[in-house]
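Researcher: Sequence recovery benchmark, item below. Answer with residues only.
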């Protein structure tokens, strides 16, 4: 499975990615959640750990590592997605519906849509449909919320996750746990 974490900018995709990775790693006999960072925002896999230790250092390093979303960058990430043979790969893409993300996402098999603005989900559903990606979760990112909400688990996991904040461990949140279980179950089918 190659699962794209997608949605509008500033929805918390990188925070969700890190929490999801940790939640999956705690599930007995779960596949290793291999992560591909396919957006040049400077928030690679190292970022969350650094932010939890020292927010200012993380901010400075992010500024140093932030790059441009060039065609060369997109082509390399698309190759990574195409060529990975891990049982479970999470692909963190940028927050724009454009040709560069289309190039990267075309090699994925599934999608999780995370959006702070519910109204923007429809355009991401359409984009995923154009790429023949099976959407397995639609999650509202409720930054000011105080708890998660799970509305349905099948056929698509739907609900909200609260307060996705850089440097915070979100792996024990109800929605993150539910999504981790969905991904592991699909890998086992």
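Model:
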């Amino acid at each position: 499975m190659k699962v794209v974490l997608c949605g509008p900018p500033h929805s918390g995709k990188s925070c969700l990615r890190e929490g999801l990775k940790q939640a999956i790693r705690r599930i007995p006999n779960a596949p290793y959640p291999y992560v591909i960072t396919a957006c040049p925002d400077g928030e690679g896999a190292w970022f969350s750990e650094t932010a939890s230790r020292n927010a200012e250092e993380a901010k400075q390093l992010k500024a140093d590592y932030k790059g441009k979303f060039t065609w060369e960058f997109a082509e390399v990430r698309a190759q990574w997605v195409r060529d990975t043979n891990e049982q479970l790969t999470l692909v963190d893409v940028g927050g724009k519906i454009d040709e560069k993300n289309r190039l990267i996402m075309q090699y994925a098999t599934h999608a999780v849509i995370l959006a702070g603005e519910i109204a923007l989900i429809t355009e991401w559903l359409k984009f995923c449909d154009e790429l023949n990606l099976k959407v397995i979760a639609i999650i509202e990112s409720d930054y000011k919320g105080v708890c998660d909400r799970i509305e349905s688990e099948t056929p698509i996991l739907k609900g909200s996750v609260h307060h996705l904040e850089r440097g915070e461990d979100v792996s024990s949140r109800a929605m993150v746990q539910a999504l981790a279980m969905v991904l592991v179950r699909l890998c086992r089918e």
